[in-house]
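Q: I have 169 residues here and want to know how they pack in 3D. Can you give me a structure?
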Amino acid sequence: MREKYRIGSIARPVGMKGEVIVNPDTYDVERFFDLDMVYAGRSEEVSELLTVESVRIQKERPILKFESINSRSDAEKIVDYILFVDEKDRIELPEGIYFIHDIIGMDVYSVDEEYIGKVKDVLTLPAHNIYIVHHNNKEVMIPAVDEFIESIDEEENIIRIRPIEGLLE
């Protein structure tokens, strides 16, 4: 079982008082209002606990102020840090919605049972997510939309896709 769960990453400082804008890895940005503490760091293993002082939402992205980050230069030091929460702060997702950290590492197969590769990363874009899959010594991008994704089986750790011609080239 995981100990920490990724909820976003710090994009950039906002203003001069230490606020940061977050790229959320969640479908519900309102969840940030319920956080008192988050882990922040370059990885799950190398992260420190920060106290959330305030939260506001701007253009569908959370802006956080941490108690120990009080200037723009302090905020610049934590740009690109990943934000994590404990199990107790993890939210329940509706059916068919997945945490990015659960998708990363899944094996990808075609509906014809051909092994495609392993999900290395997920790009979160306004229209839809893109799964970055290592395939034949290169990375291919698979849109996370119903036209391509046949099924996601969390128990088997498998994503089945319907590739179109040229998708895997």
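Q: Anything worth noting?
A: The longest strand covers residues 47-58. The radius of gyration is 18 Å.
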